Amino acid sequence: MAATILDGKQLAEQIRRQTAQRVQRLAATARAPMLAAVLAGDDGGAVLYAESQAKKCAELGIAYRLERLPGDASQADLLSLIDRLNRDDAVDGVILQQPLPKTCDAAAAQSAVRPDKDVEGASPMSLGLLAYGRPALLPCTALAAWELIKASGIKVEGANAVVIGRSQIVGRPIGLILMQNHATVTTCHTRTRDLPGVARTGEILVVAAGRPRLVTADYIRPGAVVIDVGTNRVTETGADGKAAKKTVGDVDFEAARQIAGSITPVPGGVGPVTVALLLRNVVEAAERHIG
Ligand code: NAP
Questions:
Q1: Does domain 31-119 have CATH number 3.40.630.30?
Q2: 76 CA to middle of ligand 1, Å?
Q3: Each residue of 164-210: pLDDT tens digit?
Q4: Which superfamily does 139-272 belong to?
Q5: What whole-number distance in Å separates Cα of residue 165 and Cα of residue 231?
Q6: What is the distance in A from the centroid of ligand 1 to the CA of 169?
Q7: Best CA proximity match to 61, nearest among 89, 30, 40
Q8: Given pLDDT bands bounded at 50, 70 and 90, which one contains residue 291?
Q9: Is pLDDT above 90 for 1?
Q10: Quick check: do 31-119 and 139-272 share a fold?
Q11: What is the number of other CB atoms lying within 10 angstroms of the CB of residue 246?
Q12: Considering only CA atoms, which residue is closest to atom 48 of ligand 1?
């Protein structure tokens, strides 16, 4: 039987509705949450992304402040702006739009964001808090994978979970979240021996490798929950013989869906949930600040 499709767009819509209600409660009792975005230079993609973020915030009633820096801003300029936002009681969340100026150290800048305002959950401190099991804003993509696992209905406690990928922003935090929810977790990477064999032990299989269609049918345990985090732009020849760009995951979706119990599509799986969770993190941060 073909797998159930875990619809990320639908889940994202549900998360947005719940987030909007929390925003309304905050606005009625105290003030609307506020997200501040730091944008350096005028990279077309980053400007478009910031505009789309502003629109999404407005739809939910979240205040949005765009802080612009010149494209040649120094590390000191960037850190000074982050420091100002860290101290500003009106700001609940801070996001650093990529790309940052080449003159800046992106990792150091991310580390400078106060953990309780790090709505991307991207700083070393946020990952450390997660590792220690302390309250923290969780990295949005890892959290999205977790929300989709919950939506599958699988009993996580005691389940064998395999994560392919160990990056600080995706694979590692997903493994930690699963471990904290009492799964037995195996994390795989480029040095893992017999990757298909290890992957096949997973009742839950999360793939975050950044390799188009790495995971084929022989990686999948029958009935497994498969979460495909991968987002890869590839050029492929269509039925009409023309080459076209498309987005594919790290999982061979058509093959995997014949074996898995449930599976996320790409696009339309983890991606939309990640976007919705960034705004939920802003509200989460605001509730803690105001509360
Ligand atoms: P990354 O930093 O490049 O990390 C990739 C990880 O996968 C590494 O740990 C690497 O192992 C492992 N890996 C790569 N090829 C492998 C292979 N052939 N076999 C086993 N392990 C392999 O990537 P990332 O930032 O975590 O992103 C992963 C994917 O998620 C990308 O496609 C990215 O576009 C996507 N992504 C999606 C979202 C979203 O919202 N949907 C957000 C962020 C990222 P080593 O450590 O040994 O090198």
A1: no
A2: 31
A3: 999 999 999 999 999 999 999 999 999 999 999 999 999 999 999 99
A4: NAD(P)-binding Rossmann-like Domain (3.40.50.720)
A5: 13
A6: 9
A7: 30
A8: confident
A9: no
A10: yes
A11: 13
A12: 190
